[in-house]
Amino acid sequence: MQEIEKKVTYSIGQFATIVGLSAPTIRYYEREKLLNPHRDHADRRYFTKTDVSWVKFLLHLKGTGMSIQELKLYVKWRAQGDATIPNRLALLKETRNDFMEKYRQVQHHLQILNDKISWYEKKETGASHTEEPFGDYLTRIGHSE
Amino acid sequence: MQEIEKKVTYSIGQFATIVGLSAPTIRYYEREKLLNPHRDHADRRYFTKTDVSWVKFLLHLKGTGMSIQELKLYVKWRAQGDATIPNRLALLKETRNDFMEKYRQVQHHLQILNDKISWYEKKETGASHTEEPFGDYLTRIGHSE
DNA sequence: GATTGACTTAAAGTCCACTTTAAGTTGTAA
DNA sequence: TTACAACTTAAAGTGGACTTTAAGTCAATC
C-alpha cells in the first residue's frame, strides 16, 4: 500500500496548485536551486510527495522571514551533510530571534490599530459630545505612543 | 510651560532621526501626501510634535500591513472630515481582519521553525543513534504539516 | 492529421517602497 | 568670506520576489 503511494507524481501545474504557488514561481525556485524536480522522457518536470513536504517546509521558513538568499544558503548547507548542522542551526536561531523581535513590534502595532478602531466606534456612537483626541484616549487607556 | 513646549520644531534631519526614517523617506511620504510639513522663510521644511505623533501613528498602521496606497486613502478620507468615518473604520477593520489571518499563519510558521530547531538540537546531542526524519518527528509531537 | 492544452526555455517586465544621484541654495562657524 | 553641513528639487536607480512574454515542443483527443 505504501509502495503504491510512493509512485504518485505531479506535473508542475498540479504541484503548483497543491503547494499554493504558480508554475512560474516553481520554476523560479528551481533556478534558485531551492528545488530540483525529476524529469520525464520529454524533459518535463515531475514532483513527488517528498517535494510537496519539502516546499511546504521552505514556505514555513520563508514565512518566518527568511529571504530567498537565506533559503539558498540553508539548502546549500543541507546538501553538504551533517557537518553543516551548526551553521543551519545558527541560521534558524537567528531567524527566530529576528522573528520574535518583529513579532513584538507587530503586536504593538495591532494594539494601536485596535485602539483606533475602538476610538472611532466610540466616536460614532457617542456622537457629538465625545470629542476626546486620539492621543489623549491612548494615554487614558495606558497605550501612549 | 506648555506654551513654550508647543513652539518646538524639527528640521527634516532631526525629524527623520526621531521617527526612525531617513530624510528621503520623509520627502517621499510628503510626495505621497501622507505628511505636509510647514516651511520656513527659506522654504525648508520644519516639523512639530504633532507631526511626530502623526507619522508614528501612520507607522503603526503600516506595521499592521497597510500599504502606502491604503494609507493615502485613509489620509484622504481623514481630510474630508467626519462624514468619512465609516469608510475609515471599514478600512481599519479590513486591515485588522487581514492582519489576524496572517498572524495565525505566522504563528504556525514559527511553530515549525521551533520544531526544526529542537529537532536539530536533539540530533546534535543524541548524536548518531537519533535518526528520526523531521516529518516523523512533526507527526510524533503533533505538528504535522 | 490537425487542434488543444500543458508543458519547455531565456529574457524582459512589474510592483512596491524606498534610495541614490546630480545640481543647486542657505545658515552658521572659523 | 570662505568653507561646510544641511537643506532643496526632479529624476533615475535599486532590491526582492516574482510575473509576463515570446517562441517553441509534445501528447492526447477529435
Automatic annotation (TrEMBL), chains A, B:
Transmembrane segments: none annotated. This is Transcriptional regulator, MerR family. Residues 9-77 form the HTH merR-type domain. InterPro entries: DNA-bd_dom_put_sf, MerR-type_HTH_dom, MerR_fam. Keywords: DNA-binding. It comes from the Bacteria. It holds the Pfam family MerR_1. Signal peptide: none annotated. SMART domains: HTH_MERR (SM00422). GO terms for molecular function: DNA binding; DNA-binding transcription factor activity.
